[in-house]
Design brief:
Helices cover 78% and strands 0% of the residues. The protein is mainly α. The relative contact order is 0.16. It has one domain. The chain is elongated and about 50 Å long. The chain is built from 2 helices and no strands.
């Protein structure tokens, strides 16, 4: 298994969250909109690529902000 420095945790987390969210959401929306037709794989791939281009930067930008908001709401 590859090991990374802890300073890269937010970046790696953002990329993996964006990637996985895009994968699941593009699959779901492709099934809903197109169904399991002959164009399913192409439509899913296109949706996944576009979704990744949106979700990865979004998670990298909003992830740390959301973490700070949640941290400020937690009391010990």
């Amino acid at each position: 298994m590859v090991k990374f420095s802890a300073k890269y945790r937010p970046i790696i987390t953002g990329i993996l969250m964006g990637f996985s969210l895009s994968l699941v959401m593009s699959f779901t929306m492709t099934v809903v909109m197109v169904g399991f037709t002959p164009i399913f794989m192409r439509a899913w791939f296109n949706g996944f690529v576009i979704g990744s281009l949106v979700s990865i930067p979004t998670s990298l930008i909003l992830g740390p902000l959301i973490a700070k908001i949640v941290e400020s709401m937690i009391t010990d």
